[in-house]
Amino acid sequence: MENRNPVPLPGSSNALTFGILSIVLTLTCCGPFGAIFSFLGLSNAKTAQNVFLKSTGQYTGIENAKTGKILSYIGLAVAGIYLILGIIYFGVIAAIVASSISEGGGF
């Protein structure tokens, strides 16, 4: 029996918002904050999908939860790539400094 007036799925818009924020924050300035928002988006998407599966059709907006989940995974992947690039970057700098110091060149 379907409800004539479906209501928005709780948490689905939050999942979408957190997914968008995870990508935007990671790309603009704050990689770790992007990863945090990715985890929040994934958590909200999972909760929303569980509520939707247990419901009897009274909710709409599962698309927002699915999109938020995908965007959260993308944001998490980009944050991971930035982390790896940061480690490589600072590793190269540390190697150059260590090489300079060991050769007696100093600064």
From TrEMBL:
The keyword Transmembrane applies. Keywords: Membrane, Transmembrane, Transmembrane helix. The chain crosses the membrane at residues 20-42, 73-101. NCBIfam families: CCC_membrane. This is CCC motif membrane protein. It comes from Pricia mediterranea.
